[in-house]
Write a structure and sequence with these properties.
By secondary structure, the chain is an alpha/beta fold. It starts with 18 loop residues before the first helix and ends with a helix. Bound molecules: iron/sulfur cluster (2 copies).
Length: 521
Amino acid sequence: MSSRLHGFPGGLILDGHKAISSGRPSMRAAIPERLFIPLQQHIGEPAEALVRPGQRVLKGEVIGAASGYFSVPVHASTSGTVVEVADHPVPHPSGLKCACVVIEADGEDTWFERSTIADPTRLDPAALRNLIRKAGVVGMGGAGFPTFVKLNPGPGRHVKTVILNGAECEPYITCDDRLMRERPGAIVAGAEIIRRATQAERCVIGVEENKPEAYQALRDAASDGVEVVQVPVRYPIGGEKELIQVLTGREVPSDGLPAEVGVLVQNVATAAAVYEAVEKGQPLISRYVTVTGSGVSEPRNLEARIGTPLRDLLEQCGMREGEVTSLIMGGPMMGFSLRDADVPLVKTSNCVLAETGPDSNAGLPVLPCIRCGSCAQVCPVKLLPQQLYWYARAKDFDKVQDHHLFDCIECGCCAYVCPSNIPLVQYYRFAKTEIWGQEREREKADLARRRHEARLARLEREKREREARHRAKRAVLSGKDQKMEGDAAKQAAIRAALERAKAKRSSSGDRQEGAARQRTD
Ligand code: SF4
Ligand code: SF4
């Protein structure tokens, strides 16, 4: 692959607000009194709890087991005692609750026994994927896709190029920037492991031009097989498909996956977690997170344990209690509002944005669409956002899919430029949720229909079997009748023969008596 850069459609130059938090070195967050560790922090099946209240656990110990192929284990992020396994609110746009293992920390932070491999370079791809899975590593850039699954593109697909995403294009978020500056060696080593696990020929790390320190740190750490490339500052260049297009010139097809163009993209933080898993036998139990915005007096990056309540993190960054008017998980473009700070940090949490003053998203009057076309000009996926809006609003879910709703990456560029302040992305999320809901209902109905048909078939089969049994019984009974009739006939014949013999004997006696009488006479 050449390092010649290519463009991508649309996009925006945004005010980054990154210097607020990127200037300070990251800090290790304090161990909270209680950790709320969700059993589902990844796409796929939730982990199954392996612990119960009262049980003592050590840092790094498995507390939730993977429950299917699309599942990874969950580990304790400090030592302590399990006090509860119950539903608690987790970071989700709907305020969703999910099963969490609640651990009361003992403050000792005692590690569970970790096993390390003497020479991980000798491991084959399957063994590497297994170690990465055991460590509970998922994509830390947003979606939380189990990493071991992504490293296995499936039969017939070959990954030629691994791209590490260090673009971090969304405003306010700087956790990857700090990680790249502070742990470039772990990222490069992780990149090499990912390359070995996929048998890829090339590996390139893309870093936005507004992170010169991170770029230099990676360049200094990079080995021969890892290329570090600066990419232009343009939102959303950190989108998977956009970064692939910029670095390779290849366009991932609509509804397609990067593997279809021979590319695998991982976030830089995921690469560092892969390194920790393979080289140190260390599970994913902490991450860098940006705590920023006008709602905190000391915006910065923290290395925090998974399960730490966000309130603890905000307080460690000088939360302006009583003044915070909006709390966002993620950045202002793609993040989502939180109802309160009493939700835990999860593996995919990259930023907590606390703002004071009037909520910038609230209060703006929503006006009718004037069909200005600005939204289409900035869409990086070349969609027609206003058409999607009309169809989503009309709940015409066939049409909205015909217009490739599921290619929308929810980057928010369209809503950002809309002069009518239409919350376009909310309409797209609504339409996606409705379609998923309908699909689930359809699947349920299909399942119910299949069950009903199976029941009818079973009843019919049982009826046929019952009839066959009755027929067989009747046949046996009629055989018995015939036998009985035969026996009776035989008995009658015997009786008749006996009668005849008796009669014969009697007549012969008479004759003998007459003869004797004649002789006597
Ligand atoms: S930018 Fe807004 S007003 Fe203009 S076409 Fe798109 S949805 Fe309509
Ligand atoms: S949110 Fe979707 S429709 Fe709007 S610009 Fe981004 S990708 Fe295009």
